[in-house]
Amino acid sequence: MRWWSVANFVSNAGTWMQLTVQNLLVLQITGSAAATGLSMSVQAAPALLISVFGGAAVDRWPRKLTAAVSQALLGAVAFVTALMVALDRLDVTSLMVLAAVTGVIATVDGPACSLLGNDLVPAQDVPSAIGVGALVHQAGRLTGAALAGVTVGFLGTAAAYAANGLSFLFVASVIPFLRPARGAVKHTGAVKRGEADTMTVREGLAFFARRPRLLALAGVTGVSAVFGRNYHLTLAVLVTGPLAGGAGSFGTVSTVLAVGGIVGAVLGARLRRPSVRIVGALAAAGGLLQVVAGLSPSLAVLLVMVLPMAVVESVSDTAGTAVLQTDPPAHMRGRVLGVWGSIGTVWGLGGPPALGLLMELAGARGALIAGGLIIAGSIGAGHLLRERQTGTPVALRAGDAEVPGQAALGTAA
C-alpha cells in the first residue's frame, strides 16, 4: 500500500508536469489556443470510443501484468516524444498522433491500475485507501505543475517528457513486488477456455444499465460536471471580470481550490460506508455553495466560499469512486469502469462548451447561480421521484451477486 502510494505520487507528478509542458509546447508551435484544446481532446477521445473494450480487457487479462505493460508503454511514448523534441522533429501532427496513442493505452491502463489497488487493502480500509488516492492525486498535481516550470527553465522541454517516462517505468518496476492483503477480493485474470465468450462488452453495458445505483451515480456526476466543477473556467471569468481581479487573484483562488481538494480527500478517507445518497447530498450542497459564490460581492468573500466548495467536491468524488468500484462484483469491475470511462468522457468534453455558452448568455455570475440551482434542483427532484416510486428488486444471476470487495487506491496516471 505504501509503495503503491509512492508510485502513484511519482506518476501523477510526472503526468501533470507533461500535461503542463504539452500545453505550452502546442502554443509555442502553433500560437493557437484552439490547437491546445484540440490536443487535449484528441488524447481524451479514445476513452469515449474504446474505453468499454479496455475495461473488458482488464477483466480478462492478469491485472498486475496488464498494469505493468501499460505503464511501460506509456513510458515509451513519453520517451519517444522527448527524443523528437530534443531533435526538433516534433510538429503538430506528430504531437496529435502521440496524444491519441497515449489515450488508447490509457483506456486499459486506467481501470487496470485503479483495480490493482483492490488487492492491497482489506475491505474495511477501502474508503481510507480511496481518500489516500485522492490525496496523492492532488499532491502529485500540485508538484507536477510546479516542477514543470523549473524543469523547462533549467533542462528544457524534452527533459519534462523524459521525466514523465521515468515516472511510468518506476510504477512498472514497483508493480511486480506488490502483495495482496489478507482477505482481499482477488482477481487473477486467468480466464478458462469458453469463459471469455461470457466476459463481453455487452455484458458490462447490460450490467451497468440494470443497476439503479450506478445510473443514479452517473446522473448526479453528469449534472455536476456540466453545470459545476469547471471552476477554473467560471471562476477565472468571475475574478477577472465582475470582481476586477488579475492573474494573481485567480492564482490565489486556484491555490485555495487545491487546498480544499486536499482537505476533502482527508475527510473523504473517513467515510466508512459511502453511498449514492451521500454523493447526491454533497453534490447538491456544492451546487448551493456555488450559488452563493456567484453572488460574492468581493474577492475576499469568494475565497471564503471557494474552500468549502472544493472540500465538498473532493469528498463527493471520493464517495462516488467507492460506490463505483465496490458495487459491481469483482469479475465485472473492469467493464463497469470501462463504461464509466466513456460516460465521464462525454461529461468532460461536453461540459466546458455548455458552460461557456451559459456564460455567454448569463455572464459569469449568472452561470454560477443558474448552474448551482440546476444541480441542487435536479438532485432534489430525483430524490423525491425515487421516494415516490416503489422499488423493484433487480434479479441478477448468481455470477452477478453482490460481492464484498475493495475500491481502488487510484490510477497511476
Features of the shown structure:
0% strand; mainly alpha; disordered C terminus; 413 residues
Structural class: mainly alpha
Q: Provide the helix percentage.
A: over 70%
In terms of per-residue confidence, which ranges show pLDDT below 50 for 5 or more consecutive residues? Answer: 193-197, 399-413
Shape designation: globular
**Portion in beta strands:** under 5%
**Tally of contiguous helical segments:** 13
Mean of residue pLDDT values:
84
The secondary-structure element order is HHHHHHHHHHHHH
Assembly state of the chains shown: single chain
Major beta sheet summary: none
Measured between the Cα atoms of the first and last residue, the distance is 17 Å
Backbone CA Rg: 21 Å
Q: Total strand count, please?
A: 0
